[in-house]
Write a structure and sequence with these properties.
- The chain has about 475 residues and is α/β, with parallel strands linked by helices.
- It folds into three domains: about 80 residues, Immunoglobulins (Immunoglobulin-like, Sandwich), CATH 2.60.40; about 280 residues, Alpha-Beta Barrel (TIM Barrel), CATH 3.20.20; about 80 residues, Golgi alpha-mannosidase II (Immunoglobulin-like, Sandwich), CATH 2.60.40.
- Helix content is about 20%, strand content about 30%.
- It has an eight-stranded parallel beta sheet with strand order 20-19-18-17-14-11-10-23. It has a six-stranded antiparallel beta sheet with strand order 24-25-26-31-28-29. Strands 2-9-8-5 form a four-stranded mixed beta sheet, with no helix packed on it.
- Helix 2 packs parallel to helix 3, helix 7 runs parallel beside helix 8 and helix 8 crosses helix 10.
Length: about 475
């Protein structure tokens, strides 16, 4: 393997170290839940000085709500038998405050397709805790399609199929772990999924104004379904149709904005470039490409033919490169090489895109853990500045395809992601005007005369940081 992967930080050993993002956001007066990620020997006990309306449990789960918009400080302390650590997180309360950093979590589609149930989802939530993934910031457990049954219930909304016996009990349990839970739907009359009869958020006579693959209905049921999701306690919505349009997206956006709980809004599959300003100002995430797949050609296309979207995301409105295709999923191990998996993950980090694992967390390999659990790599994605990547250098000559992306960081440094996406070795010399660090290896790099030369084989990536 070309990319050197550092061993995973011992999550449950040693002195406390809080590993939270430097900023977190929520809406005014709506319930907040935030699990403080931290390393250190257990038991690890938390306390804090928090804004009025919030409290922190001894195991580090912050809950409550803040009634007035504004910026606040959460001073958080973690301690164990060996020592203590403190960190201040900036809390931003108000409209448009969600996802101050890109979402990071897990989603069901690649992992299980339709072959999952309520126990699978709760088991996955526990696996995030038990593997230590949650201590690196992974905090969402999101259900994709094939949960749907038929319309009915208190709100005349989509009810779950027989594999989900109690949605509220499931979300309550996930919340008790300090994690969040997401759900899937569509404005189409029939949703994408393995089953061909899954209902969506419209029904009745087809509205010929829209060209959606499975048709948009004239009977609008968006509000009914949002009311149901709120009662169940969901925190995220993946809203999926093709071709995408902002008119249908706007109907759901309005319902979510006035809901009495925060629900992160992800529009998918393919956002319309000419309407990019609408997406980044009215959603928290918007898909910009096709579905992920464990094929090198798909990885290359979905991650490296999106340069026209560079700079089009922003804090609270992130451009989304789709879920990861790494791990054991749909009954098989990922077909990508280890280096190709690093390429895919690094692309999400630098863009920056939300990061959603989608594999069976009960079957993680050591290499997969090293890819998923590198706090220095994740910190680039979660950097509070929210800077978008720019294309610094490109070579494209037959089999020689090489790209370097740059991302500014809040500490004054810069992250550089180098990708050889071609079919032959590529040698490149960087001008390194500061201390250079290999983030995947967690090692400083010796720089001679202000230059660093590297030869990269095909289908490989490096993630470097130039410190100011």
């Amino acid at each position: 393997m070309f990319t050197k992967l550092s061993p995973v930080t011992p999550v449950f050993e040693g002195l406390p170290r809080i590993n939270a993002p430097e900023a977190y956001g929520a809406s005014t007066g709506k319930p907040l839940i935030f699990r403080v990620p931290a390393f250190g020997q257990r038991p690890l006990l938390f306390s804090g000085r928090l804004p009025k309306g919030l409290s922190i449990s001894r195991d580090g789960i912050i809950t409550g709500s803040v009634k007035r918009a504004g910026e606040y400080k959460m001073r958080i302390r973690a301690e164990n038998a060996l020592g203590s650590d403190e960190m201040t997180v900036k809390l931003i309360i108000g409209r448009g405050a969600l996802l101050q950093t890109p979402l990071i979590g897990w989603t069901s589609w690649n992992a299980f397709l339709h072959a999952y149930d309520q126990n699978t989802i709760t088991d996955t939530a526990h696996a995030l805790i038990e593997t230590g993934l949650s201590e690196f910031g992974y905090s969402y457990v999101n259900i994709d399609s094939d949960w749907q049954g038929s319309y009915g219930g208190k709100y005349d909304a989509i009810q779950p199929n027989e594999r989900f016996t109690d949605m509220k009990a499931m979300t309550d349990h996930i919340h008790s772990l300090g994690l969040k839970c997401g759900i899937y739907s569509t404005p189409m009359k029939l949703a994408f999924g393995m089953c061909q009869t899954l209902p969506g958020c419209t029904r009745g006579e087809t509205d010929g104004k829209y060209l959606a693959y499975r048709e948009i209905g004239k009977e609008r049921m968006e509000q009914n379904n949002v009311d149901q999701w709120v009662e169940w306690g969901f925190d995220y919505l993946k809203y999926d149709w093709y071709p995408n349009d902002t008119e249908n997206a706007a109907v759901m956006a309005k319902c979510l904005r006035k809901a009495p709980r925060d629900i992160v809004y992800c529009v998918t599959t393919t956002a319309v470039y000419d309407e990019r300003d609408w997406y980044k100002n009215n959603t928290q995430m918007f898909r910009i490409g096709g579905d992920s797949e464990d094929s090198w050609e798909v990885v290359r296309r979905n991650n490296f033919e999106m340069d026209h979207w560079l700079g089009e995301g922003k804090i609270g409105g992130w451009a989304d490169l789709d879920m990861l295709e790494i791990g054991y999923f749909a009954g098989k191990r990922c077909r990508l090489t280890d280096d190709e998996q690093v390429v895919s993950y690094t692309a999400k980090v630098i863009f920056p895109s939300p990061i959603q694992l989608s594999c069976d967390l009960r079957k993680l390999t050591e290499t997969e853990m090293r890819i998923f659990c590198n706090e220095e790599v994740i910190a680039v994605n979660q950097d509070v500045l929210g800077a978008q990547a720019s294309l610094l250098y490109e070579a494209n000559d037959g089999g020689d395809r090489f790209k370097i992306y740059e991302k500014r960081l809040s500490d004054g440094g810069r992250a550089l992601a180098l990708f050889n996406i071609g079919e032959k070795d590529h040698t490149h010399t960087l001008e390194a005007d500061g201390q250079l660090r290999d983030l995947w290896a967690k090692e400083d790099i010796a720089v001679k005369d202000g230059k660093y030369t590297v030869t990269m084989p095909p289908h490989t990536a490096l993630l470097l940081k130039i410190k100011s």
